[in-house]
Design brief:
Polyamine Oxidase, Chain A, domain 2, Guanine Nucleotide Dissociation Inhibitor, domain 1, seven-stranded mixed beta sheet, eight-stranded mixed beta sheet, FAD/NAD(P)-binding domain, alpha/beta, globular
Length: about 450
């Protein structure tokens, strides 16, 4: 049987892969997109409950993400603001308090330390070029320490250090001790500062999608042409020669003049590469695990937390929950969303299901009252157990990785090009970064074909 031939084979039908394919199709190239899952969307996945959408993967966009806002307008993906109003709950090492705004009430001395931390982070991130963090002054020194080590040296306040943990766990799916300081600084630099990462109003969590975040991938797949998107075809290997690239799948091979690979870095080590990848590229794949995130949704008969003057948002410094949000969607039931992230999420699946849910409900009841213990519907999404993601929300760069192996992150290997939100120079780790990375990879291929 002849191997199907196209100009470009795109591996992965998430936002990055579909954005690349769409750009290539518009440039007149023939394209085949192969995807292991039976759906498009990658780390975005939308379910429907009682007529309302629920994003069990990525779900927010906001100011500072112009490509996603433009794509929402183009595809007709309507947005709505994340619910605000009311006080937030802080569980600081078992002590509960409530506060309004972004900054918890933890005493003037701790607030001064927190402001110092933000000032120091801002100073460091300004020296880190988003397109090449390995070129930052002192990059090797930053990369040789963890975020936790840096915090311990610069911030004596144990309260401030405790407040940092749930924030880092939620944004990265990892604990401060797992992250390189250079990786952290690059992530902040690519977002334009630390506050956009954590703010709701005016930040990256400001808007949600009426039809869910997966609607972006569905719309892009329509633009690419559904006949070009091949679902349920896991890729097992990639071979290339002077004339092109062969992508080996469970359902036969595909041949292209070039290939764009848009998979999480940590999964690329599972593929067979012929010829073998260059050593730096190969070892990059070996060193980049995924973060760990579990999302637990709890729907209720009424929004009792609002009646108590609470926003539905909570921060917990010790876990297993890191943060809670009001996840109510237009036309849907009142809902709370609890994030289990970082260390508690890594072995979450090893606990009995009933015990997992009870641990979450116990904390929700402590934060919002006894009604939180009796939801009418629940759903748990554990991304650590997803074989085609390996975790969520992003790839991690442990100490010593980004400064040494970062220069090959976007560098093509022969006719193989790389996409994915972790390769983005702006809004790395977000949907914005995924789309722009795919478009960048497509532009590389278009230029190479000329």
């Amino acid at each position: 049987m002849d191997t199907p031939q196209v100009d470009v084979v795109v591996v992965g039908a998430g936002l990055a892969g579909l954005a690349a394919a769409r750009r290539l199709v518009e440039a007149g190239a023939s394209v085949a997109v192969v995807e292991a899952r039976e759906r498009v969307g990658g780390r975005t996945h939308t379910l429907v409950h009682e007529g309302a959408t629920i994003d069990v993967g990525g779900q927010w966009i906001g100011p500072g993400q112009p490509r996603m806002l433009a794509l929402a307008r183009e595809l007709g993906v309507a947005t709505f603001p994340t619910p605000l109003g009311g006080k937030q709950v802080l569980d600081l090492a078992g002590t509960l308090s409530s506060y309004a705004g972004t900054i918890p009430k933890v005493g003037i001395a701790h607030l001064l330390q927190l402001q110092l931390a933000l000032t120091l982070i801002e100073r460091i991130r300004k020296g880190v070029p988003p397109e090449a963090p390995w070129d930052a002054p002192g990059a090797a020194a930053l990369d040789g320490q963890t975020l936790l080590g840096w915090v311990r040296r610069h911030l004596p306040s144990s309260v401030v250090r405790q407040l940092l943990t749930p924030t880092v766990r939620t944004v990265f799916g990892a604990d401060p001790g797992e992250l390189s300081m250079l990786h952290f600084a690059h992530y902040v630099a690519s977002a334009g500062g630390f506050m956009p990462l954590v703010d709701t109003e005016g930040g990256f969590q400001e808007l949600r999608l009426v039809d869910g975040a997966q609607a972006f991938s569905e719309g892009l797949a329509d633009r690419v042409g559904r006949e070009r998107v091949h679902l349920g075809r896991p890729v097992r290997g990639v071979s290339q020669d002077d004339d092109g690239v062969t992508v080996h799948t469970d359902d036969g091979d595909l041949r292209g003049g070039h290939a764009i690979v848009a998979m999480p870095l940590g999964l690329l080590d599972r593929l067979r590469w012929a010829p073998a990848l260059p050593p730096l590229r190969d070892q990059l794949h070996q060193r980049c695990p995924m973060g760990a995130t579990v999302k637990v949704f709890c729907a209720y008969a009424r929004p009792f937390w609002r009646d108590a003057g609470l926003s539905g948002e909570a921060v917990c410094t010790e876990g297993p929950i890191s943060v809670v949000f009001d996840n109510t969607a237009p036309g849907g039931p009142p809902m709370l969303l609890a994030f289990v992230t970082g260390t508690p999420a890594r072995d979450w699946a090893s606990r009995p299901q009933a015990a997992r849910l009870q641990a979450v409900l116990d904390l929700l009841a402590r934060y919002f009252g006894p009604e939180a213990a009796t939801p009418v519907w629940t759903h748990e999404q554990d991304w650590v157990t997803d074989p085609w993601a390996g975790g969520c929300p992003i790839t991690l760069f442990p100490p010593g990785t980004l400064s040494v192996f970062g220069p090959v992150l976007r560098e093509p290997v022969g006719r193989v090009h790389w996409a994915g939100t972790e390769t983005a120079t702006r809004c790395t780790g977000f949907m914005e970064g995924a789309v722009t990375s795919g478009e960048r990879a497509a532009d590389e291929v278009i230029a190479a074909r000329r």
